[in-house]
């Protein structure tokens, strides 16, 4: 199959920690597996943010800072059906990173949601997320012959308030697939990356 035009269009920018590689064909998961993945994710998020303030309304977020951003499919449905979908999403993430000058520390694609830890100002966060979600949903619907919303609402964003919170949030995002039972080690999951990944590997190698 010829490479979709969107991949050629977006082949120049990069997201730190993730090259423009293609992976083998993925598999679609059943609803039971999706619910299990989301439940594991929600439990991990509760532990990570147990001592933080609740998520703030978007209008109250600081003008510039580091954010843990997450978005899930409407009715918890899959937002990626195969690796072509995931590759397209990563291409659009590279575009948002380049166009809106995001500093992507960590990201992870899960079956029915995704996570990004990003540093930027609030306006660039909002514009970049609009580009990412709108263009991906539009392409997804066209490719799979569906109509209607793909994502449940816009996106959730959590302010990262301290160095300890930063490390915990990045580790939480990167370890999402392991926690959900999708793989046995983070390096087995091809759909994650970010600048923090190398640091986490170094810390793990030293038993930290």
Chain-wise SSE layout:
Layout: H1 5-9, H2 31-48, E1 64-72, H3 83-99, E2 103-109, E3 113-121, H4 122-144, E4 156-159, H5 163-174, H6 176-179, E5 192-193, H7 196-205
Antiparallel strand pairs: 1-3, 1-4, 2-3, 2-5
Helix pairs in contact: 3-4
Can you describe what's shown?
Helices cover 43% and strands 15% of the residues. By secondary structure, the protein is α+β, with helices and mostly antiparallel strands. It has one domain: 2-Layer Sandwich (Alpha-Beta Plaits), CATH 3.30.70. A 5-stranded antiparallel sheet has the order 4-1-3-2-5. Strand 2 and strand 3 form a beta hairpin. Helix 3 runs antiparallel to helix 4. The longest helix has 23 residues. It is globular.
**CATH class designation:** Alpha Beta
**How many beta-strand runs?**
5
State mean pLDDT (0 to 100 scale).
78
Helix content: 40-55%
CATH architecture identity: 2-Layer Sandwich
Q: Report how far apart the termini are.
A: 44 Å
| Class per helix and strand makeup | alpha+beta
- The dominant shape is globular
- CATH homolog superfamily: Transposase IS200-like
β content, as a range? 5-15%
Cross-sheet strand order for the largest sheet: 4-1-3-2-5
